[in-house]
């Protein structure tokens, strides 16, 4: 069974978003806008936030892919 293309696309987009945010923190560290301690905290926050957002999106997508309960339409 193949992985749906939407899952692969969404996962890649979240990986790119996380990498860009980590890059921004790294750049801020190099320019001196963030101290070493603050940059380390920022790295942890970005990783946890990205994984959490991806997991929320993934669960929502999976629940809508094959719903267990189907709508019942009443005829009038």
From TrEMBL:
Keywords: Hydrogen ion transport, Ion transport, Membrane, Transmembrane, Transmembrane helix, Transport. It is found in: Membrane. GO terms for cellular component: membrane. GO terms for biological process: proton transmembrane transport. The chain crosses the membrane at residues 12-32, 44-63. It holds the Pfam family ATP_synt_H. It is a multi-pass membrane protein. It comes from the Eukaryota. InterPro entries: ATPase_V0-cplx_e1/e2_su. Belongs to the V-ATPase e1/e2 subunit family. This is Uncharacterized protein. It comes from Cyclostephanos tholiformis.
